[in-house]
Amino acid sequence: MAGRFTRRAALTVPLSLWSTRAFAFGDGGAFHPRLLRAGNNPPLGVRASGAGRWSWELVRRTSAPARLVASDVAADQPALQAEPFVIWAGETDPGPLSAAEVRGLTRFIRLGGVLVVDDTQPASGAFGRGAKRELSRVLPESAPVRLDPGHVLFKTFYIVDRPVGRVLGPPEISGIVRGKNTQVIFLEHDLLGALARSGEGFALETEPGGLEQREHAVRLAVNIAMYVLCSDYKDDQVHAPFLMRRRARQKP
Amino acid sequence: MTLAALALAEGVPPFTWFAVLALALVSLGFLGFELRKREGAGIWVLLSGVLSLLLVAAAVLRPARVNTRGVSVGAKVVVLVDESRRLLLPSEGKTRRELALRAADAVSKHFAGARVALRGFGAGELRPLVVSDALAHTNAAELSDESDFSGALNALAQEPGERPKAIVVVSDGRFSRPGATVEDAALRELSAALGAPIHTVAVSERAPRDASIRSIRSSGATVAHQALALTIEIGCGGGLGCGEVPVTARELRQGVEPFVLAQGVAKMTGETATVELSITLERAGARLVEVSIEPPEGDAIPENNTRILTFSVTRDRLRLLHVAGRPTYDVRALRMWLKSDESIDLIAFFILRTDEDNTETSEDSELALIPFPVDELFTEHLPSFDAVILQDIDAVTYKLSRHLPALANYVRGGGGLIMVGGPSAFAGGGYARSPLENVLPVELSGSGGQPFDTADFVPRYTEAGRSAPVLRGLTQLFADELPTFSGSNTLGAARANSITLWEHPDRRAGRGAMPVLALGESGDGRSIALGVDGTHALAFSEFADRAAGRAYGALWDGLVGWLMRDPRYEALRLELAGPCIAGLPASLRLVRLPGSTGDVSLQLTRLGPQRTPVLTKSVKDPAPGPLELELGALEVGGYSASARVGAAPPTRFDFACERGGPAWSDSRPDPERLARIAKLSGGRAVSVTQVTDLPVPDPIEVAAERSSVPLLPAWAWTLAASLALGGHWYARRRQGLL
Q1: Given pLDDT bands bounded at 50, 70 and 90, which one contains residue A246?
Q2: A230/B350 Cβ within 8 A
């Protein structure tokens, strides 16, 4: 019917509309991967483009709306509380967070926000360890735990058997669970690195490599976005028999 | 009448009596001990001693003659007349009540020599009865559904003053207490408390030719969506041949024909038969169920062939269907809030992929997606939900359009509906000119132009929004302040029976501001239109952070609570001031919640397909406190009262009016029960024509005058005692006892 909104229409909206302040109708609730500035991390460089690609892949593959131009936000700014999702990525120890940054992150988590911690150099693991140390100041009562392979994060859109990013990384994900919700997700796979763009191609090669690994990294990113947008929707009982049948079919 | 008797002088305390008696006995004992071996002349000592003791006692106690004059009065007799509504049943060309009142008058005349007190009894306390007034005008509204004779006797026993010598009860014997199967011992105990015989006068002894619903019992609590067994006892009396009697249970709903819940047949083998019907009420709240029978030819009392019962249906858990057209932060916020409430059983379906999407998969098994079971949800399972939330979903694309008529009927039948905004909601989702539009609180067809607007705005509270309990939680946190929303759906004007809580500051709909949040009633159900897709800003935003995100829960608690008729979100509480009996004046009591002010308006509609109100009333700015509104005499049926105070959303209250009600459910008189009561209490059982056979209790003698005259003056008794003691001394001396 005339005037009905389509997802394609969303993709054609001029980028100027995608600022943090003015959204078109229907876009106020769109997925928006914001990059967190906290501690003394250096700029992300080319990996910052991975956030935009994350949105692009989400819009291309799913019905979810997303803001294609990513932005960053500081942990000590009130704007952190503007939306419920943020990515904290880095390769070196972020150093101690300031009191204002700890307060900001505490309020973000207590409001129900989801934080993805993406270690871009998991081989050294310095950023991941530093982030966990600092987040223990933000959430002293909640320690990271290994997420079960049956966690909803692995089935929010794609059926994902193991997490991968630019690097293969460990076969599991850890997170901080508060109540029934996983609010902090620790990745040791350089997910932004797998999504980062340079010109018409991907900026960084995957390790050990291959198109399939990058595809699986994109699928993990889509699943994380869907988790942010739908929380544990795919844990609902109504989906259980379908998913069990599909997992059984996938396994030899 | 005069009586004379001997007594002691007044003013002698009782212990003096005992002291004198004790001294006399001790003295006699000593005297006997002294004389035990003496013979002959010892008799004079004994006689003089005894005489001395008697005279000393008389000198102390001073005996007197008492004369009493009295009068004879009639015994107290209490006549209890059954004032249950059941006595309005016909009997021999009159009503049983008329026969009872005439019998009570005859009893009064028969007991002319006694002091007769006439009292009426029903459910509660005894009340004085003037037969001539009652015969001239019976106010049926003052009669009771109950006929509690046990309660009447207890009330009589509690009364201070003289106990009656006899009790006469005038009734048809079909008491609610004592029951027909009560033990003899219990009946004896009942009359023993008063210590008087109970005579009974049976006003009717022959059962009318009547088929009726004697009783309806249900087991357990009435929970929405769960089957409930109704055990219905059908009676057939007075020689009426009933055979098989069809029984139907129907739910009375507003705006639609009654919905048949169950049907059965009662197979009469004797005078009664029982049929069990299983019914399922899908909606919580007060639900009216009409149970009716099809009687055979010759049924004399049609009024007791139908009963209308009010079931207070509770929810085990609130069962909600949440359908969203695409995942967004707004969907996330609503889902997380719904999931956080343990009392909500949430069934959710979100469209995660469209036909345009490229998932980069070779087969569907790589996806964790399931088909949207739109047909199954909106046909088979729809009645099982208490409410449906449609959030930004395109009805055409997702094949919801063909189910919109059923969804509209679902709302009219008592379901709840919330349409949450977004580009694919309201007119943008193909809902304009659809059957669902008619049950939304706002018009869509006339809204014209673009289905939504992209301009940022801050909604404005209407007067109703500021005073509505549904938004009280939100206004307590932020007063009139609301966050900025990025765009709005295009909504038309609010419908009749709808109310706007938020409006757009710039956009217009008809002659007024465009509604942004509106509530409405449609048939038995309620619906909410929310023309924005950004209420998640109350859960997660810089604005939300000021109240730690609690504003979102406050808003949705109110919206879902109002949708489900949670009393906390109503501005009024409504109740019947007394039972509603068809043809008799009825009234409603309105209790306003604190803070609810303004004019009160009431609209009364009969449940069923007709939509025209049978009554509208308004009271301008009434004084604080409960308010009673006269409804006049209503016909048999179910009614829905919708009352509104000030600009707040209306509150609904459903109730039933019956002709006979429970009082007429069993039309048979029970003279055998009357005879048992009379026999076990020592009374006599008679019919209305045998009142003169009742025994009249003996009158009571009551003292009116009393005089006391001493037999001798005190000095004479003292002198005689002294002389006797002197003689006794002389006799003892002669016997050598000194």
Answers
A1: low
A2: yes
Q: Is B325 on the interface with A (CB under 8 A)?
A: yes
Number of domains in chain B: 4
B16 and B130: one domain? no
Is there a single domain that holds both residue B414 and residue B378?
yes
- Measured N-to-C along each axis, helices B671-681 and B184-192 cross at an angle, to the nearest 10 degrees, of 60
Distance from CA of A124 to the nearest CA of B (A): 33
pLDDT, average across residues A180-205: 95
Residues forming beta bridges with residue B279, ordered by sequence position: B228
Q: Where are the domains of chain A?
A: 27-250
Provide the residue range defining the domain that includes B347. 318-355+367-563
- Asked if residue B360 is part of any domain, the answer here is no
A-proximal residues of B, 358-377, CB under 8 Å:
358-361, 364-370
Record: contact B539-A112, CB cut-off 8 A:
yes
- Say whether B348 and A233 touch across the interface (CB within 8 A): yes
Give the DSSP letter of residue A167. B
Domain A27-250, classified CATH 3.90.180.10, yes or no? no
What pLDDT shows up at residue B2?
A: 67
Mean pLDDT of chain A: 88
Chain A, window 144-183: residues with a beta carbon less than 8 angstroms from a chain B beta carbon: 155-159, 180-181
pLDDT for A3 equals 43
* Cβ separation B394–A7 shorter than 8 A: no
Could you count the other beta carbons within 10 Å of the beta carbon of residue A244?
10
Do A26 and B396 lie within an 8 Å CB cutoff?
Answer: no
CA geometry: angle B384, B387, B391, nearest 5 deg: 125
Total residues found in chain A within this entry: 252
Please state, in angstroms and rounded to a whole number, the distance separating the CA atoms of residues B96 and B238: 16
pLDDT value of residue B96: 95
For residue A111, give the nearest of B450, B488, B544 by CB distance. B544
